[in-house]
Amino acid sequence: MKSRTRVSLSVSLLVCFAATAAAKPRPIPVKVVVVAMFEAGADTGNQPGELQYWVERDHLDRVYPTPAGYHAVRMNGLGEMAVLTGPGTAHAAATIMAVGLDPRFDFSHAYWLIAGIAGGCPEQVSLGSAVWARWVVDGDLGYEIDAREIPPDWPTGYLPLRKKVPFEELAAPVDGQAYALNGGLTEWAFELTRGVALDDSDRLKEIRSNFDGAAAGRAPFVALGDEISSSTYWHGKLMDAWAAKWVPYFTGGKGTFATTAMEDTGTLQSIQFLARAGRVDANRVLVLRAVSNFDQQPRGLSAAESLAKQRIGAYAAYLPALEADYRVGHAVVNELLGHWARYVETIPEESRRGDEAPAR
C-alpha cells in the first residue's frame, strides 16, 4: 500500500512539474536591438528624440515594462527591439544590464545597434552626416587640473590616469578606456550604407560655411570615424584638439576622432559583462552617430558663446541628424531582418576581422 502511495505521489509531482514547465513561456527571441539614449517627450506624436522615429516607422507597438531600467522596451513582431537608456554613462550601463538580464528575452543571436546623435569634428565630418565607429574611447577616465593652473608647456590640463604629463608614453589604458568594435561588421555596415542619400538644405549650407575644417563644407555623407564617449559635454577648438590626440593615443594610432557621445562606454561595458555571462554576443555590436552639431565654435564666436547655443532640440542639424541616424541605421536593420536565415549564425563580414585590439 505504501509503495502504491509513493508511486502515486511521484506521478503527481511529475505531472505538476511538467505542467509548470509547460506554463512557463519561452524567452522571446530578439534579432536586433536598437539602443537610443534620449527622447524629447512621449515615444510618439511630438517632437522626436532618438527613439521616436524607430517606434513610429518600425511599428514597435509591443511595450514591455522594464522597472529595473530607465524606460520600457518596445518591440515589433519581426524581432526588432528598441531600448531607451537615458542620458549619461551611468543610465546607459544600468539600463542595458537590466534589459540584458531580463529572462523574458533571448539575446543570444541579437545584433546591437547603438544609434544616436552627436557632436562632430569639422575636420572629419559635416553636419547631418552619419558615422560608423570602429573605436569608442572613454573621455572621462583621467586626471584633470583647472585650466588656470595648466603649465605653459602643456597642451591640455587633462592627463591619462597614472601619467604625469599629457599623452605620456607608453599609453596604459585601464579597463573600460577603449573598446574596439568588430571591424569586419562595421565595414560591412558602412559598405551597405555608404550610398544612402542624406538630406541637405540651404540652411545647413549657410551654417556649415561658418566653420573651418576639411569636411565642414561637405554635404552630409556616411563615414567611418571613431568616437569619444564622456558624460561631460565639452565644447571648443582646444577641446577638439585634445580629443583628436586622445583617440589615437588610446588606440595605438588606429583610431581617428570624428564624433562625441555621452553614453556609449556605459552601454559597451554592460554588453561586455553580459557577453561574459553568456547572454549576448559582443561581436554583434554597431555604433552609429549622426552629427547634429559641431564640437566647437564657428568663426566669430568664442567657445563660451557657442556653448550657450548648444541645447538639445536646438542643435543646428538636430532633425537632419535624427533623420540620417534612422535612415542609415534602418538600412542595416532591414537587411538583417530581411535575410535573417543568412545572419542568425554568421556575422556579416566576420572573416574580415583581423588585427583589431580586443575590447578593453
TrEMBL record:
Keyword terms, alphabetized: Signal
Record has Cell inner membrane as a keyword: no
Signal peptide annotation: 1-23
Protein name listed in UniProt: Purine nucleoside permease
InterPro entries the UniProt entry points to: Nucleoside_phosphorylase_sf, Pur_nuclsid_perm
Source organism superkingdom: Bacteria
One record GO biological process: nucleoside metabolic process
Keyword Signal assigned: yes
One function term, GO molecular function aspect: catalytic activity
